[in-house]
Amino acid sequence: MTTQTGTLLETVTTPEALRAVPGEDLPRLAEEIRAFLIETVCASGGHLGPNLGVVELTLALHRVFDSPRDALVFDTGHQAYVHKLITGRQKDFDTLRRAGGLSGYPCQAESVHDLVENSHASTALSYADGLAKARTLNGEQDRAVVAVIGDGALTGGMALEALNNLGSARDRPVVVVVNDNGRSYAPTVGAVANQLDVLRTGGGAEACRNLFTDLGFTYFGPTDGHDTAELEAVLHRARAMRRPVVVHVMTVKGKGYPPAEHDEADCLHAVGTVDPQTGHPASTSALSWTEVFGQELANLAATSEDLVAVTAAMLRPTGLQLMAERFPQRVFDVGIAEQHAVTSAAGLAMGGFHPVVAIYATFLNRAFDQVLMDVALHRLPVTFVLDRAGITGPDGPSHHGMWDLSLLAAVPGLRVAAPRDQVRLRAQLRAAVAIQDGPTALRIPKGAVLGEIPALARIQGVDILHRSNGRPLEVLVVPVGPMAPAALAAAKGLEEQGIGVTVADPCWVLPVNPALTTLAARHRLWVTIEDHSLSGGIGSATAQACREAGVHIPHLTLGLPRAFIPHGSRTDLLARAGLDAAGITKAVLRAYRTRTRVPVPRTAADRSATTARRAP
Which residues are catalytic? Predict the structure, then answer.
């Protein structure tokens, strides 16, 4: 993709070129950048509102600091599109968030100007602290370290830990740029937000005592984040201090694009393909897993007064908005603070309530100790609903929810469900919030919810989804949650090869249902399929359960590789991992031939000669 001929933007492909632009031309450049982002992001999807809000700030940062010699660390990284444009990636923006194309976050493989790829929030200040220490040890104190962090990310405990360390190091030259737009996804909550609001409305507060000065920082601000000249002046002053400095910058999320500025939900924080004129989705999407969860939770809350919900700054993305509208006093947004969210939920449970903690699966990694020691150790009735479990698609490696089962499998007393369709999601959520003697978790993927996949039979909690008619029990296929459709399609392919197949959904995948091991013992080969890393997870847990039960038949575990998986569509990434119908069929055929040492029957005569076993 190229910019329109004759624009100023097409000449700014390096930070050096940006610094050569006369100051009076910067408003024109900012306008062109916004027009470019609206056009491209509305077409590809991505983080629109955050990037529209930091155009002037990013220009000023690259004019004052010399990247990559000076380190620019963007917290979360969803506001780095302008940074990508300035550092030579304009022509690649038509590949944004597509397989093999530009990442939606900073990416070391793309540019020497990108340092931090991790898009989990509240980390930039700790990176900056370590980088500044390294510069001091190397005698490179003239190389600046700048951390750009939003006011929403300041609510994270890790950010506060870093402020505590940075502020005490008077000789550590770190510039903390607080991009204050009053929001993360939603309006920022908590005491830190209140303190920033006081500074925003106070005006001319450079000499006043505040949170940052009390921690040891020099404070500059509040500064107009859309005035490049003002920003450059204050950033030059901050750099010259050669000590920890906070530059408080006020910006408007979605600046310059009315549909984003007027969107009260999240200022078009993250969009799919949308109409650039309206900001509305180009097409009406089907009901999502998240929406079904949100509907059912709100319905349950209407009849269960002890039901409460907790979110870590993700009210709408995790489906809690409907319950918050109906029962605002029973929904708690704690800000970007997953650890606090989980232990606060533990306290709610101790107080007689049943908390539902709605959280992205990838973010649960941050609160594993709290799940283990604060909830499970006390056998508390807390339900975790893990959104975006498995492959999420265009957000890339830091957002794939592919480690949660490995972690949760180690938690004593925790019961985990993986619904295969919306009927099971509603039923398993009802079952989870009714459990009062320990924690539960439900794992749901990103995307449109599946229609009902009915069971042919139910055996001690295990749903039989398919059984080859008139054929022996040769292969047992156990899909986890939304992997059921691919497993059923693979079963048909295996039957065409003359192999009898049973497809069984355990529904509740942890702890392993003993009925599943009994069923496995009646087959020649059993296969688990999960949208999760092969390290740990349901395959490993089921294999261990079989060994402990004395079941020693061959086992094939299909899942995601032990690797950081790049961005791309969910469908394509699952296929690459061999988790589509064709990949599953191929893998099972190979395993059946090599592990069972039984020839694959290919004719009716061959099949009739095979010893038949009883169907379940």
Answer: 253, 338, 366
User: How far are the Cα atoms of 82, 134, 398, 541 from residue 94, in angstroms, in the given order?
Assistant: 14, 37, 22, 42
Tokens of residue 214, six digits: 């009390």
Say which residues have a Cβ less than 8 Å from residue 239's Cβ, sequence separation at least 6.
64, 65, 144, 173, 175
Evaluate whether 380 touches 470 at the Cβ level (below 8 Å): no
Convert the pLDDT of each residue in 248-285 to its tens digit.
999 999 898 888 888 777 777 878 888 888 888 876 66
Using alpha carbons, select from 310, 307, 309, 438 the residue that is nearest to residue 380: 438
Torsion angle (degrees, nearest 10) of CA 187, 190, 192, 198: 70
User: What token pair was written down for 52?
Assistant: 């529209």
What pLDDT is attached to residue 198?
87
Q: Which alpha helices (H) appear in 304-337, and where do they start and end?
A: 321-326
Banded pLDDT at 599 (limits 50, 70, 90): low
In the three-class reduction of DSSP (H, G, I as helix; E, B as strand; rest coil), residue 540 is classed as helix
Nearest to 542 by CA among 454, 465, 446, 462: 462
Q: Are 385 and 341 in contact (CB under 8 A)?
A: no
Q: Which residues contact 48 (CB under 8 A, 6 or more apart)?
A: 37, 38, 41, 42, 254, 257, 260, 268, 269, 270, 271
Whether 224 and 30 have beta carbons less than 8 Å apart is answered as no
User: In this structure, what token pair is assigned to residue 269?
Assistant: 């924080």
> How many alpha carbons lie under 13 Å from residue 394 in its C-beta half-sphere?
18
Compute the average pLDDT of residues 500-505.
97
**Sign of the dihedral through C-alpha 165, 169, 174, 180:** positive
